[in-house]
Each structure stands twice: as C-alpha cells, then as structure tokens.
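Let us practice reading a record.
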Amino acid sequence: MCCASTIFQTKPKDHCQRQESPQLQSCGGEMTAVYKDDQGDWMTVCLKYLLFVFNVLFWVGGAAVMGVGIWTLIDKSDYLSLLASSTFAVSAYILILAGALVMVTGFLGCCAVIREQRSCLSTYFCCLLLIFLIELVAGVLAYVYYQRLSEELKQHLNETMTENYAQPGKEAITLAVDRLQQDFKCCGSNNSFDWLHSVYMTSAVSEGRVVPDSCCKTITTLCGRRDHPSNIYKTEGGCITKLEQFLADHLLIIGAVGIGVACLQICGMVFTCCLHRRIKLDPY
C-alpha cells in the first residue's frame, strides 16, 4: 500500500509538470514578443529624435546657404557687370533658392516627425532629393565657371574696361570699374598702361587724364593726370589677378557650403527612410 500510495502521489505531480510546461513556454514567448516590441519602440523613438535634430541643423544650414547666396550678390555686386557670362550670378541665385527651400523643408520635416505619417515622410524625402539635385546643379556650374574664370577675365576684362568706361549708356560698367580699382587698389586690367589706348583717354572728355581718377591713391578732381607711382596704383599690379582671386574665393565658399549641406541631406534621407520603414512595420 505504501508503494501504491507513493505511485498514486507521484502521478499527479508528473501530470502537473506536464500541464505547467506549455504555460511556461507560452509565458516565455510573450516575454520575447514584449522585448522585441520594446526594442522596436526604442529604435523608432531614437530615429524620431535623430530626424528632429537633423531638421533643426538642416534649417540652420538652409539659412546659411541662403545667406551665402545673398552675400555673393550684394558684396561687391557691381563686379558682376564686368563679367562676360552670368554663370556666377546664376549660381548665387540657385543658392538663394535652395536655401529658401531648405528652410521650408526643415519645417516640413519637423511636422512629419511629430505627426508620424508615412505620406508626410515621403513628401519630405522628395523635397530633400529635389534640393539635393538643385545644389548639385549649382555646384557643377560653380566648378565649370571656376575652371574658365581666368581665361574669361583675360579675354574680356581689358576690353570691357577700355572700350566701355565713361561711355554713354555704360554707367554701370563705369561705376564697377571705379569701385574695382579703389577696392582692390589696382589700375587697369593688367597694369596702368592699359588705359593709354582706351576710348575714354583718347577723347576730349578725359581732360588730359592718363588714367581714371579711381586709379589714384587719394582721389581728387583730375588726379588722373599724374601717373607717378606715388599718386596712382602703378606698381600694385592689375585688376585681373585680384578680381580673379576674389571670385575664386567666393566660388570656393559656395562649393564648401553646398557640399556641407548636401552631406547633411544624405544623412537626413537615410534617417527618413529608416523612420518610414519603422512606421510601415508598426501594426498600430
């Protein structure tokens, strides 16, 4: 009876163990699922924060891009009338457009992150891609113009200065030349002798000047009659090299800002795709 009693008592215990085993397995499966859900939520939250911080930086970058474009056009903008092509100005206008779009897109990106809608994220991604292409075009134009800058100035600046200075209807060029020579402390495209055969100096309007008054170190009326190095910028070199350096520096700044914002955009597009995928997989 003792044996029977022992057997009787052990059977229910085995039965209980067999019944508890599926429950433990079920409980373990639920814990694994909860862990995966928590992990997925954590990744989504991290992506949202990353994208939000990116949009703040992106908005600041857009303001910088637009500022560089405006600065390029305003700072010594008179020089643009001396250039044979409008590529330099077009690059600046493209930067201004891209900067404005970046600022608007940054605001749109913040809204897309807050609302967590796939349609908003898709629109935001398309805007990022469009701005990236615009900046790419501006960068290509700036690079092409940078390669041709020296040749263009050598071919056209001397002709523009000597044939159009102080001529009727060419007031913009006259002002640009005067400012160029004063700002860069230069005289003539290559040197002061370039003015000897200019249309202005060979006419009676020059009143005996050998160089424009803007070549003088201290401008006074008819100071251009005396071309001594103590009076004019005669030994400081021509304006071509100085204008070329000025434009090249501006183009490098345009390129550097464009590359920086473009790299930032690539990060933003990656974050957007990841968040779009997380929201797509979210069953809720």
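A brief commentary: The longest helix spans residues 2-74.
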